[in-house]
Amino acid sequence: MNTLSAMDAKALIQFYQRKIVFSSFVVN
């Protein structure tokens, strides 16, 4: 997807990392 800018990609990665950390924290 070429319309996705580097800034959007960075924000998306940070969002998923936060989601993964939060979900793993909830599981434990």
Tell me about this structure.
The protein is mainly alpha-helical and 28 residues long. It has one helix spanning 6-27. Helices cover 79% and strands 0% of the residues.
Task: Give a concise summary.
The chain is mainly alpha-helical. The protein is built from one helix and no strands. The longest helix has 22 residues.
Count of helical segments? Answer: 1
Tally of DSSP β-strands? 0
**Fraction in beta strands:** under 5%
Q: Any idea what the shape is?
A: rod-shaped
Helix content: over 70%
Q: What number is the mean pLDDT?
A: 86
Question: Radius of gyration from the CA trace?
Answer: 12 Å
Ranges with pLDDT <50 over ≥5 residues? none
Distance between the termini: 35 Å
Q: Tags for this entry?
A:
28 residues, single chain, mainly alpha, 79% helix
Task: Describe the secondary-structure layout.
Blueprint: H1 6-27
